[in-house]
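ugh ok fine here u go
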Amino acid sequence: MLLSTNEYLTYKISFWRKLKLKILKQIKSAKFIVTFTITLALYIIIQFHILDNYIIQSIKDFYKFTADFGLKLENVYLEGQVNLKNQEIVKSIESEVGTPILKLDVWEIKRNLEKLDWVLNASVARELPNTIHIKIVERTPIAIWQNNKKQSLIDDEGHIINESDIDKFFHLPVIVGEGSRLTSGMLIEKLREYPKIYNKVSAAIRIGDRRWNIRLKRGPEIKLPENNIEEALKLLTEYDKKKGLLGPEIDVIDMRITGKIYYKKKEK
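structure:
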């Protein structure tokens, strides 16, 4: 069949277009087969945990291999422990002697330790081949907080440390009253600047969550002002040097008015 120039060009373009479409169809078909095959393989691996089990077993074999070469927990070195009990620390590690040391999660141990009431912060480090080094900063109790006939140790932030073993902290002042737990830290800090007063404090009572009354051992009850406690304590110290106001013969010292001291002697 003879074709004109225009018919030839049309035929040629049509031929290559059909060929291109056919090739693209084959490619799309191949992509589908590859995609389907990969998807099916992944489904089988995930569904039957083939890869998971392989990885888990490989990790177990690795830890066993390292432990066989001496990289296993044998020692725990502690720093900073004062009141924290050994069993609480051991429980936080959650691992027994002989556990592969590389398997231990030091960050998890740190988090467990810092959940304990006595612990302010902790650091945990692996010291190969066989030691865990734990550094602890314990909370410092400053008072015994009494609430609803229940006593608890607290630190300067008002954090409740412990509700047992309080007997060995009998020297700390007892604090009571609305708002006393969260405000006692500032009071104790100011009292410590005046050791003669602080060392005699037996109790501190928060009045209306505004101010404090201080009770001294073998001494008076001191009614502090709402503000300017530092000035009041300084003034009280000066008056005590002159008149011995902190002795057992004084019943009450009223300092609620700034710059003034009123006191009452005990009745004989």
